Amino acid sequence: MAPRYCHAFQSGACRKGDECSFDHATDPDASTKMCMHAARGDECRMRTCPYSHTPQNGEIQSNATDARSNGTSRPANTEAQFKEWRYAVPPKERITTARPPVGATKVKFCKVALELIGGDIGTMQEVVTLLASEGGCLRVKEIGEQRFDKLNATITNKNVVSSLILAPRLMTVYNILYGESGQRAVSLFAAMAKHIQGLPLTKTEDPNAAEMSTADTLDTVLAAFHKLVEVNTESQVHGGLKAVVESFRQIFAIQLPPTAAFAFKPASKHLRRLEQRFGLGQAIPEAKDHAKVTNERAVFELARERPGELSEDGIRHDNDHVDIRQISILPTLQEIQSARNEYLPLADPREWHLGGLEGLLDRHFRLSREDTVGQLRDAAKFELERLHDPNGQIKKRQGARTFVYRNVAVATLAFDPHDGMEFVLGFDQPREVQGLSASKRRAWWEDSKRLEMEALLCLLSSGGSAAFFVVSPPPSMKPRKDVVTRNIIQPLQKQYDLWTLPDRAFVVAKPVNQADIHLLLDQLLGRYPDQLSLVEFPGVLLPAFKPTLKAMQTMSDTLDVPFADILAPVATAANPSREVDIGPPANAAKPGFQYDLSTVTDHGTKLYLKPAQDVDTMSIELTSMSELDYGQAQAVVSSLSRALALIQGPPGTGKSYTGVQLIMILLANKKAGDLGPIICVCYTNHALDQGLERLVDEGVQKIVRIGGHSKSQRLADVNLRTIAQKLLLTKTERDDRKRLTSEVEKESSEINRLLAQMRELRSEASVAAYLESYYPEVHTQLFGSVDEDGFETVNYHSGGALERWLNVPWGFGRPRPIEDLYDMHIAYLTGQERSMLCTAWVDDMRENLQDRLRTALESYNKLKEQLDSIRTEMDLRVLSQANIIGITTSGLARSLDLIRRTNAKVLVCEEAGEVLESHLLTALLPSVEHAILIGDHQQLRPHIQNYSLSCESKDGAQYALDVSLFERLVQPQDVLAQALPFCTLSVQRRMHPAISKLIRFTLYPQLQDAPSLDRPPVVGMRHRLFWMHHEHEESESVDPAVTASHTNDYEVEMVAALVKHLVHQGEYAAEDIAVITPYLGQLRKVRSKLSSTFNIVLNERDVDDLQKDGNDEQAADDSTAARPQVARGNLLQAIRLATVDNFQEEEAKVIVVSLVRSNAKCNPGFLKTSNRINVLLSRAKDGMYIIGDANTMQQVPMWSEVIRMLEQDGCLGTALELCCPRHEDRPMSVDKPEDFIRLSPEAGCDLPCQDQLNCGHSCVAKCHSALLHDAVFCMKSSRLDVFTCVRSPVVRIVMNSARRWWPPMTSS
Questions:
Q1: Whole-angstrom distance, CA of residue 635 vs CA of residue 933
Q2: CA–CA separation, 1074 vs 380, rounded Å?
Q3: Quick one: which of 58, 350, 980, 1304 could link to 969 by a disulfide (CB 3.0–4.6 Å)?
Q4: 1245 contacts 1261 by C-beta, under 8 angstroms
């Protein structure tokens, strides 16, 4: 967490000392930050203030006001106006005597409120807060009885509606307008509809122009109507309100000229959302009747399963619902135990149980949940069955990798206002660490990457329960104090860890569901002594999938998704073979609007684009006036002219560059088009950082990067958290934070008090207090000092009254029912009956405490949400001033509520071909009017966990979860969809023509090579492109520590020898050489082989995959972030190593490919799909060397064509041909690893070196590269560190404190 420096401490003025909540340390960046007094427009009174007093150009404003107030405080006239206005809102004590405003007073009240709302943010918040007070609600109710447009305009102001802190207050206002059973709302909006129906829609003097006053009124009224329906759930089934919607629909039934119709588009958008809410205009997808076809094949359609109550066999379990909004994200116990398969919708929309957009969201929710949660469910079921039958036959489980910890016990728990409820779970140390020292245990746990922060866990009990947890993050560096005692709270992580004890390990975790807290409390208190197991799902993080699934549930409720008719058509098109006609975005459809393209033209030459202009003609003109080639110019022009634009970028064609140029144009026209911030979304953090850095290079200001996983130092200062810390709270926010913090602390104290009582449930004091409150007579009988005859009792025995009462003979016979025992004198009960009654008391106490604890936790959670909303409000103020908002697809789902409130109208998505459709659907915010998807459906598809849902799988093709939205729109596979028009970039600037030929003749017939692709030959090799065929068979991994993966030992040795040969040429800089392979197992072996000689650089996704795959201590050390520099020696280089699936956005001068698969069945494995082959063949710039069995790959059509071309060009054989740069005529063919040592031991050939040393003497070594030649010391000119061997003269070179012999010593 970034330090929060004390502002007063910087100038020596802080008087709080240790009580100060900010850090007392010198702020190194003080001179670059704005003084908080100057930011508010106040005079800074500090004598030696180190902060800046001048706003820096391009910075996001850090004051509490928005951009319109230009950083000044509330003007004096606004202050006076607000004070006068608030007098019209009666305080609570005067509500009954306050006179209602009438006539002009009521009009003025609404008018001034609207003016104040348009001022600074602080005033806006105070106005809405007053309207939501008791007196304000009285005024709203009075005004709502009549039609007042100014009130609607006030409560639909975009800043008011987007504010999170005002959301509960605004809901109060709308609830008042809704009235009793919605009658006030029906009367109000019905009157408004009737009034608007009588207003002119066009100007009398110009029938083509809209009457703007009517358009604005209609927009305001419908916005208020939609918001009212949104916050009142029961309104969506209100027949009267549905009739009002029909009245508004009649207004839009009138045909208007295009110019006038544009002015009513905002209002029509609100009406469309209302129609979706009330279910108007929805339809089940049905294919239109087709002409009868002769000779049609017979078809037998199997009956398909349905979800929930629609299933013929009944519901599967308690989490099987027709409506996805009712489905719990994580599996329930019944779902884990269920023997039936889950309902999974097919790709064909005709098979869905719901139609249109609702069916599309239903499909992707269920399939995405199965892809992630399904593997957790199956793993939990396997372990639960083992707990129920520990002596049963153990079956081999297929699916996701898990770690299971046995003999689990709940050790303790803690609750504090910041972290909430945390539990300590103890379990037996794994076998791997038993017998090790504490230091070695710690090293093992840290290297294994197990039970790290946010790891997902499932606690299972033999009694039949399942609870999910996430591992708690480490405590903050700054200690926290108890709110009551003010003592420092010792975090649980300081008391319990994984390695201190030799036989037990402990992990601190939080329950995902609040309901599981009580289950854990019962386990802690020993109520249910069940056997427990803890299952860890390595690499599965709840934030990676839960936000997306929750977002789709929310979207299914609102159905507010742009381009719904294109994304989810409900009927076949009249001409299915024709591409969909996509109109311009709403902002560009404005009469007279045109794009200014001078941002990308040479020397800023003026060039304008009107959306109606011919794309081809405009593309030619833009090409001649800019650095864009024709394909890029066409992509830019068509994307600006279409509301939903698709750009296909084959390998090396500059799709990222094209995206940057598009964003530059959109930013230049931001004000004219009223675009707001542009959302730039990518699938990976790496791609997002690269894209934002390109924009920084172009001089773009006000970029905000959301998310804490950025590796870019250049973007550190534009991270949302960093910027938001500079903001100052408004008065309303300060008051709310103070109040909420106090209430949170009070609830926390109450929760801790209840937890303390639960720990002491069976104590005599707890039982006595309970009996005194609920059974005073029993309390007197048990704890009183006078018996029923009035005699004082004297006790001569040790122990408390309760213990003595229970310590009597057990008794004989059957005990009486517990109901009867409550009415009997406790002295006449047997020992067994007393035990029963005491247990009943304790159970009653427990239930009572749990009910109170549940209420307290609910209150705490609501308060925390409100407290968090203040921070979100500050984030929103930052984003409202941004030009660019950069975020990943999963990050967008996590911050969906925040991002939606920015009202962003433009979305640009890179890597769209790699993004799951569910992720892209959640990125399509309701406010988006212009979406640009950039990707390539012929490269890698989205990555999914469950292969049986993939279109590569025989069974998975019917689900096709890994088909991206980009691919589905370009190549629709169902009868209801039409293809969308898209542009393809056509000039590649990466690969040498000999390499690009492989994908041009197989996938991209229009692909052209740029004129500047005169790449140098690969030093040390005869060919720049070669396939070395072999028939050494693969081996399948049998290591139980990792999942099954294929390897090929021969290829490992050949790859290592070839890489060393290339590196020792001395011509390639760090990371110019990359090794790629389809399998993690092979990657692991190649890395192990090369790591003793080279620095290995893995990208983050491969590091994650290796760690997820099994114990892999070395993976984290090989990540790019861990190795910023190469430092192993002059002859050593950094070698990039990656799997094909994680190398799509990368390139290198020389690529070495290990295909791995070689088997008698000719099974090519992963490399049977053209998408993956495409990526593999298109990464190299100068040269590529493929090592693999051509016979195995020959069965794949694309491989067959590639092999034919390579054979034709003489680039396929059973041996690699090396080339000595100094003796080019010397033939050298290698087909075994040892051939490199025999033929080219020093990266040259086996002839003597003919060059002279720097001193002028002859070199006595074998032919070697210039790099090695420069490292040789002359024996004649220097005796330093040189001696003569009896067999041959040897020069000893010392590098990195390691002795190297040169030339290498050979045995005689």
A1: 11
A2: 40
A3: 980
A4: no
Can you give 710-778 as a three-state secondary structure string?
CCCCCCHHHEHHHHHCCCCCCHHHHHHHHHHHHHHHHHHHHHHHHHHHHHCCCCHHHHHHHHHHHCHHH
- Pull the structure tokens for residue 993: 């023509």
Provide φ and ψ at 194, rounded to 5°.
-65, -40
Tell me if 641 sits within 8 A of 983, measured CB to CB. Answer: no
Give the CA angle between residues 1146, 1148, 1150 to the nearest 5°: 145
Rounded Cα–Cα distance for residues 48 and 33 (Å) = 15
Q: Parallel, antiparallel, or unpaired for β 420-428 and 504-511? A: antiparallel
Q: Higher pLDDT residue, 859 or 1124?
A: 859
Distance separating alpha carbons of residues 995 and 824, to the nearest angstrom: 95
Task: State whether the Cα torsion 974-975-977-979 is positive or negative.
Answer: positive
Token pair in block for residue 649: 């970028």
Burial of 845 (0-12, 13-18, 19+ CB in 10 A): buried
What are the two backbone dihedrals, phi and then psi, of residue 106, each rounded to the nearest 5 degrees? -65, -40
In 3D space, the residue among 810, 801, 799, 804 whose CA is nearest the CA of residue 835 turns out to be 810
Distance separating alpha carbons of residues 400 and 646, to the nearest angstrom: 35
Residue with tokens 């009572």: 848
Helices 764-774 and 831-880 meet at what angle, rounded to 10?
A: 90
What is the 8-class DSSP label of residue 413?
Answer: E
User: Does the predicted model carry a pTM greater than 0.85?
Assistant: no
pLDDT single digits (tens) 221-278 = 888 888 888 877 777 777 888 888 888 888 888 888 888 888 888 888 888 888 877 7
User: From its phi and psi, is residue 17 left (phi > 0), alpha (psi between -120 and 50) or beta?
Assistant: left
Three-class secondary structure assignment of 319-378: CCCCCHHHCCCCCCHHHHHCCCCCCCCCCCHHHCCCCHHHHHHHHHHHHHHHHHHHHHHH
Q: Which of 81-95, 240-254, 480-494, 786-800 has the lowest mean pLDDT?
A: 786-800
Q: Minimal CA–CA distance to 1144: which of 1181, 1115, 1096, 1176?
A: 1176
Question: For residues 939 and 298, what is the distance between their CA atoms, to the nearest angstrom?
Answer: 36
DSSP lists the bridge partners of residue 679 as: 885, 907
Whole-Å CA distances, 926 to 642, 680, 887: 17, 16, 17
pLDDT, tens digit (0-9, with 9 covering 90-100), for 754-769? 988 888 888 888 899 9
Report yes or no: 947 and 1000 within 8 Å, Cβ to Cβ: no
* pLDDT score, position 305: 82
Q: Is the pLDDT of residue 478 over 70?
A: no
> Distance between CA 376 and CA 549 in Å, rounded?
15
Closest alpha carbon to 650 in 367, 984, 380 = 984
pLDDT digit string (tens) for 1255-1288?
Answer: 777 787 788 877 777 767 676 654 444 444 333 3
Three-state DSSP at 792 gives strand
Q: Please report where in the chains the tokens 């719901």 appear, as a residue.
A: 354
The set of long-range contacts for 326-332, using a CB threshold of 8 Å and a minimum separation of 24, is: 327/365, 327/369, 327/553, 329/369, 329/373, 329/546, 329/549, 329/550, 330/373, 330/376, 330/468, 330/512, 330/513, 331/373, 331/376, 331/377, 331/380, 331/466, 332/466
Please write down the HEC assignment for all residues of 838-898: HHHHHHHHHHHHHHHHHHHHHHHHHHHHHHHHHHHHHHHHHHHCCCEEEEEHHHHHHCHHH
